[in-house]
């Protein structure tokens, strides 16, 4: 595949197995919907337990005991609270996160030119992923706020049905700051998380293809390439969980009735950095590692099935 555009100039959009046209970006957006919507919705019980461990650590001491408490008090439906806003919110977030990452990465490489793109590839990964996440979080924020409120409100105090919960958030927006009250903490959690997720994923894939699988990438079977994708995604996810956990704790604590009207700084100083950084971290490492591995695997499987090739390489 030539790296030159039809005009004869070097163009990042022609670096892969197929040209990066609007059809390519649209398919990447759909891949992002599948990757994030399915995986986040599928681990709703882990998310419910994690949020409650952050908000009420005295009652929800660990993952297993937390899930057992929820099932005992609220039945099986208690651990699936927030499934609707999770699925819709993260589908929208995935669409912009993955789709716009491809767009911004190509744009920034073309702005930098061939030589600087090769020299500063990691900086382009970071800039592309951060830019994409800004838009992804605007789409996610109202649904994330609704999800946290559903998951952390004491049983019977807030509607758990998707439509009723959205209506209630809208009705009480003066106190809940719906729909964008959590946008700044969400950005502070998600932008570093996504930068780490994409940077470490691309870096680990690159290491696999330069140190372990040293033949040309195209010579390996799709199953091998997708295995590398999953392993790289899982390892990247572990790093992401640690990087973004303090901000994630703040987002959860903002949904707690006792913290109504308090600033982010006040919540953080009252809780203490050690608690923000460690409470629920083990669960989140397990959750985000698995989640990120599967997200990249679904995304790359979809791309491969569309003939677009897997992400990353030498």
Automatic annotation (TrEMBL):
InterPro entries: MCP_dom_sf, MCP_transmembrane, SLC25A3/Pic2/Mir1-like. It is a multi-pass membrane protein. GO terms for cellular component: mitochondrial inner membrane. The keyword Transmembrane helix applies. Its main location: mitochondrion. Solcar repeats lie at residues 23-107, 120-207, 224-305. GO terms for biological process: mitochondrial phosphate ion transmembrane transport. It holds the Pfam family Mito_carr. Keywords: Membrane, Mitochondrion, Mitochondrion inner membrane, Repeat, Transmembrane, Transmembrane helix, Transport. Signal peptide: none annotated. GO terms for molecular function: phosphate transmembrane transporter activity. It comes from the Eukaryota. The keyword Protein biosynthesis does not apply. Belongs to the mitochondrial carrier (TC 2.A.29) family. This is Mitochondrial carrier protein.
């Amino acid at each position: 595949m030539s790296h030159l555009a039809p005009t004869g100039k070097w163009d990042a959009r022609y670096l892969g197995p197929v040209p990066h046209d609007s059809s390519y970006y649209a398919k990447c957006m759909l891949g992002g919907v599948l990757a994030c919507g399915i995986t986040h919705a599928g681990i709703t019980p882990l998310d419910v337990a994690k949020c409650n461990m952050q908000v009420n650590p005295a009652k929800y001491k660990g993952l297993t005991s937390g899930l057992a408490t929820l099932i005992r008090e609220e039945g099986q439906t208690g651990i699936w609270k927030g499934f609707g806003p999770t699925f819709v919110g993260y589908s929208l977030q995935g669409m912009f996160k993955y789709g716009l990452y491809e767009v911004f990465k190509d744009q920034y490489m073309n702005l930098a030119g061939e030589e600087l793109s090769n020299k500063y590839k990691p900086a382009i990964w970071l800039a592309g992923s951060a830019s994409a996440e800004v838009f992804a979080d605007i789409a996610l924020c109202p649904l994330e706020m609704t999800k946290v409120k559903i998951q952390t409100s004491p049983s019977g105090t807030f509607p758990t049905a998707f439509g009723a919960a959205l209506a209630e958030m809208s009705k009480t927006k003066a106190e809940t700051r719906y729909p964008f009250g959590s946008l700044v903490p969400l950005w502070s959690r998600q932008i570093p998380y996504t930068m780490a997720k994409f940077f470490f994923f691309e870096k680990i894939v690159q290491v696999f293809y330069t140190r372990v699988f040293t033949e040309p990438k195209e010579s390996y079977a799709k199953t091998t390439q997708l295995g590398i994708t999953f392993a790289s995604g899982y390892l990247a996810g572990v790093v992401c969980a640690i990087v973004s956990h303090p901000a994630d704790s703040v987002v959860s604590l903002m949904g707690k009735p006792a913290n109504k009207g308090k600033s982010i700084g006040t919540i953080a100083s009252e809780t203490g950095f050690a608690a923000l950084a460690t409470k629920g971290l083990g669960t989140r490492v397990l959750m985000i590692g698995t989640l990120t591995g599967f997200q990249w695997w679904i995304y790359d499987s979809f791309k491969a099935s569309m003939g677009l090739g897997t992400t990353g390489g030498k």
